[in-house]
Amino acid sequence: MPPQRSKTVEALLAGAERAFVERGFHGASIGYICQCAGRTTGAFYSNYDSKLQLFLAVFRRQSDRTVERVEQGLAAVDTGRDPAPQLARLFTEIADRALDDRWLFLNIEFRLMAIRDKEAAAALTEHEEQFNRRVGTPLEALLRRSGRPPALSGEELAAFLGATIRGIRLDRGFRANTGGRDPLPFATMERALEGLFTARE
Known about the structure:
InterPro entries: Homeodomain-like_sf, HTH_TetR, Tet_transcr_reg_TetR-rel_C_sf
Organism: Streptantibioticus silvisoli
Radius of gyration: 19 Å
Oligomer: single chain
CATH superfamily of the largest domain: Tetracycline Repressor, domain 2
Keywords: DNA-binding, Transcription, Transcription regulation
GO molecular function: DNA binding
Protein name: TetR/AcrR family transcriptional regulator
């Protein structure tokens, strides 16, 4: 990709992320996305065929960041010790610190779209299957190297972790707006995940 085009794509991705978080997929017009990106609509159509294609690119970039954090965390796990508490801490810290409100808004927005739109549903399904493999395969391999085979397959673990983290972040999000008590603090989540990662006889 030529350097100038790369800068344009980066600007569009950053502008689109801001626009989608602020206004949602349907509320963020192409014009507003370009305004946030500091680019023209011509630049948009030179790089993307549709707003959905751009949304997918934004979503994939967010997911790539998450996978990188998981990979870095897995590489730091000491397999000479029980990996369960280490993995529980890793995924709890990712949920607590690494995944911000932008991540939550984009995830919820995509899922709402997928419920209503078959094209979005197909795209999200494909993405989730790839994501679960990318996270689940090295996670399962690490547990097996530790001599503690997991109760679930790696892909099942990744799918379960994703659903759990999304749900907790969503509930924390709306309760934070009312000052309500957190029904599932991250310390509780960490204890629950340790049980999940503990090998079964």
